[in-house]
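tool=predict chain=A
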Amino acid sequence: MTKPWAIVEHVPFEGPALFGTLLAERGIRFIEYPTYRASELPALHDIGGLVVMGGPMGALDDVTRPQLPRERNFIKKIVDAGLPMLGICLGAQLLAASFGSPTRGGRTEHDRFVPRPRRELTESGPRSPMSFAHRRGLYR
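tool=predict ok
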């Protein structure tokens, strides 16, 4: 039997949504780890992959979010072990920070991003699963 994936959540409104559905459709079990309620993370040898969801904090907001250093360390161990890992928004920042890449703070809590190129919407954009996932599908 395939090991379940871990889905790390930072706020109640950023759950697995579309990614949970995609995993389930492929017969992959997953366990949610809501770090906003408890700081528990799984043992590395107990999971088959990792999805780290978003949240309004930045990847280096360790003073207000004391679990973040543990999460960055956990992400690094996952990647170093060769397990698949997907970071969404804050999760991508945490992945970058785990390997020493810079992230920067924005003007507001939800403006903290890893710098990225500007993109233009095409006719196929609204039908793209990624456009839909980020704007509507990640929120419960």
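The first strand starts at residue 5 and ends at 9. The longest helix spans residues 68-80.
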